[in-house]
Amino acid sequence: MLADIVEKAERTAGGVTTKTGSCKFCKQAAMRKVLCEWNQEEIDELATETCECVNARIYTHKKSQKERAHNKIDLLFGENNTTVIVPDAAVDLLHKTVYPICEGFIQSATVDMGNGIKGKISITTKGIVKVTRTKTNTSTYEAQEGT
Fold first, then answer.
1. How many domains does one find in the chain?
2. I need a surface site. Which of 24, 33, 117, 138 has the fewest CB within 10 A?
3. What 3-state DSSP class applies to 20?
4. pTM strictly above 0.90
């Protein structure tokens, strides 16, 4: 979220200034600390994220859910994970399923990546996005004569 970026910049003595932005939904103007290099669109986005109107709160909640889901996908399947090797196309597909799940268009999506590895993104009944990595280890032997 943008407020976290500003807070981090303040702690590291970065270029922070105060500017006025307005909520995308209720158009209420608000003075906020922002990074000096931000344009008006980014300032308005921060004003929206911190606005108390109902639509802004719903928007911010969904945006936060999407960010957390993307972070979890990167953690479990991205190039920095040390557990499984996953094709980039499969990781991209998982990222693309975040939007329809968070917006309520679908309940879950499962991607079978081969070699017993599956990724699943779902939304719980409490509205929490869940990212799961499953690695199945199966051994199969055929019983033939003479072996």
1. 2
2. 138
3. strand
4. no
49-84: per-residue pLDDT in tens? 999 999 999 999 999 999 999 999 999 998 888 888
Q: Which residues contact 127 (CB under 8 A, 6 or more apart)?
A: 65
- Identify the H or E element spanning 66: helix 54-77
89 part of a folded domain: yes
Structure-token pair, residue 89: 């196309």
Domain limits for position 65: 57-135
Q: How far apart are CA 117 and CA 27, in angstroms?
A: 47
Position 47 in a domain: yes
Which residues have C-beta within 8 Å of that of residue 92, sequence separation ≥ 6? none
For residues 14 and 65, what is the distance between their CA atoms, to the nearest angstrom?
27
Closest CA to 62 of 49, 77, 44: 49
pLDDT, tens digit (0-9, with 9 covering 90-100), for 121-144 = 999 999 899 999 999 877 778 887
